[in-house]
């Protein structure tokens, strides 16, 4: 390996044969050829990448101390300056290619502060990003620790991993308080239930507000933890927070019959229409019926939510009541109580109906969150749960293909919104 590295160093002044992305292809080929001839593997302990990382880090550190002292190593100009090199100290840092032992130079008055590997730093930045990415994909601290040990041969404690992921909390707070658009066509509000240990383990809702922008993009506005007893006062607080962050108008809010939310919406945005998710309404109906009747009830209710007008929907529901009301009065009562928030979508064209009749638009986000939450089992506190959900939504759609599909899907609906709401979207773009 020493001969190979010496060859690389001697080739540094050579003119590159071909330059691609700033790399000397001839040098790379020489390095790989020498490694192969020496029987060295590319990755793993003692591999080429680890050796290169060590050389690069130590070379950079040597350059840093030279800049700090003002003279090169062994340069007579350093005599009598009051400070000089004072040997090195060994240090192991965890990098993207595994643990690397490096020699860090020191000076006599201990004023040298390395930048590339700071004092007491044991991990390079890429490792922290890797840990956060693995956590966002649903791996627990124990699983991440095992992964780093298996793949990189690095022993990283669960506490260290937890400390790394805690770094996202500052970003989460900033994200939760960022300014928002003045107008949104639609905001979907739904809940994910997580287990939080607060004295005893209990299910707690984490509410997610997902908006569609005037350009058809998906924008998650924020996360809020509840205790299951939320009412109008709680929702007034949440919606007022959104208004204070810049949301002056919302055309429609789609939700799952959350208690107190319709009243809070009317208070904060008087012109906003509240739409109950039809899919959730159907699911809740099945809770009051025997499983053997689910198919028949679904078939009997379909003419209600596919009716061309509200009047036609009321007629179809009267027929449903005549057929099933005596057996399942709770279903009739459920629909009557939700009727005011169920019928608004019936007044719109099919392009709008398709996208606002349910909270399906948020279900892909919920599915990603559920995978991350399920891996944890339960959380020690509310902040830990919010951190997990935040990391999950920040890792959504890394390639951007989902964003393109989302925009194309919403384009016809946004055109219909522009007409149906008398230019309120255009006013929001000004």
Automatic annotation (TrEMBL):
<keyword id="KW-0233">DNA recombination</keyword>
<dbReference type="InterPro" id="IPR001207">
    <property type="entry name" value="Transposase_mutator"/>
</dbReference>
<feature type="region of interest" description="Disordered">
    <location>
        <begin position="1"/>
        <end position="20"/>
    </location>
</feature>
<comment type="similarity">
    <text>Belongs to the transposase mutator family.</text>
</comment>
<protein>
    <recommendedName>
        <fullName>Mutator family transposase</fullName>
    </recommendedName>
</protein>
<keyword id="KW-0815">Transposition</keyword>
<dbReference type="Pfam" id="PF00872">
    <property type="entry name" value="Transposase_mut"/>
</dbReference>
<dbReference type="GO" id="GO:0004803">
    <property type="term" value="F:transposase activity"/>
</dbReference>
<keyword id="KW-0814">Transposable element</keyword>
<feature type="compositionally biased region" description="Basic and acidic residues">
    <location>
        <begin position="67"/>
        <end position="77"/>
    </location>
</feature>
<dbReference type="GO" id="GO:0006313">
    <property type="term" value="P:DNA transposition"/>
</dbReference>
<comment type="function">
    <text>Required for the transposition of the insertion element.</text>
</comment>
<keyword id="KW-0238">DNA-binding</keyword>
<feature type="region of interest" description="Disordered">
    <location>
        <begin position="67"/>
        <end position="91"/>
    </location>
</feature>
<dbReference type="GO" id="GO:0003677">
    <property type="term" value="F:DNA binding"/>
</dbReference>
């Amino acid at each position: 390996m020493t001969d190979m590295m010496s060859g690389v160093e001697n080739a540094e002044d050579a003119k590159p044969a071909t330059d691609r992305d700033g790399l000397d292809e001839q040098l790379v080929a020489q390095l790989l050829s020498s490694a192969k001839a020496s029987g060295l593997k590319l990755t793993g302990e003692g591999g080429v990448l680890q050796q290169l990382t060590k050389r690069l880090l130590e070379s950079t550190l040597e350059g840093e101390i030279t800049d700090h002292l003002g003279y090169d190593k062994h340069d007579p100009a350093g005599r009598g300056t009051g400070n000089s090199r004072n040997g090195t100290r060994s240090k192991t840092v965890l990098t993207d290619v595994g643990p690397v032992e490096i020699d860090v130079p020191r000076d006599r008055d201990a004023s040298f502060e390395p930048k590339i590997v700071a004092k007491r730093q044991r991990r390079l930045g890429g490792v922290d990003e890797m840990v956060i990415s693995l956590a966002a994909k649903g791996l627990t601290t124990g699983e991440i620790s095992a992964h780093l040990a298996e793949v990189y041969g690095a022993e990283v404690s669960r506490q260290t991993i937890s400390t790394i992921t805690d770094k996202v909390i500052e970003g989460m707070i900033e994200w939760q308080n960022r300014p928002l658009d003045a107008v949104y066509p639609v905001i979907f509000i739904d809940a994910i239930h997580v287990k939080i240990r607060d004295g005893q383990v209990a299910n707690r809702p984490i509410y997610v507000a997902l908006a569609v922008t005037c350009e058809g993009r998906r924008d998650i506005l924020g996360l809020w933890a509840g205790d299951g007893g939320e009412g109008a006062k709680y929702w007034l607080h949440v919606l007022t927070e959104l208004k204070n962050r810049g949301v002056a108008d919302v055309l429609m809010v789609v939700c799952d019959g959350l208690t107190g939310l319709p009243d809070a919406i009317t208070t904060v945005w008087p012109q906003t229409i509240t739409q109950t998710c039809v899919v959730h309404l159907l699911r809740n109906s099945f809770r009051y019926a025997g499983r053997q009747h689910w198919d028949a009830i679904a078939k009997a209710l379909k003419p209600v939510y596919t009716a061309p007008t509200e009047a036609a929907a009321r007629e179809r529901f009267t027929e449903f009541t005549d057929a099933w009301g005596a057996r399942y009065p709770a279903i009739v009562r459920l629909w009557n109580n939700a009727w005011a928030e169920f019928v608004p979508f019936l007044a719109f064209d099919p392009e709008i109906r398709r996208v606002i009749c349910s909270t399906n638009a948020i279900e892909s986000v919920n599915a990603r969150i559920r995978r991350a939450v399920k891996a944890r089992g339960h959380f020690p506190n509310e902040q830990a749960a919010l951190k997990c959900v935040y990391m999950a939504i920040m890792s959504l759609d890394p390639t951007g293909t989902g964003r393109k599909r989302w925009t194309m899907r919403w384009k016809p609906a946004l055109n219909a919104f522009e007409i149906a709401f008398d230019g309120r979207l255009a006013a929001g773009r000004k």
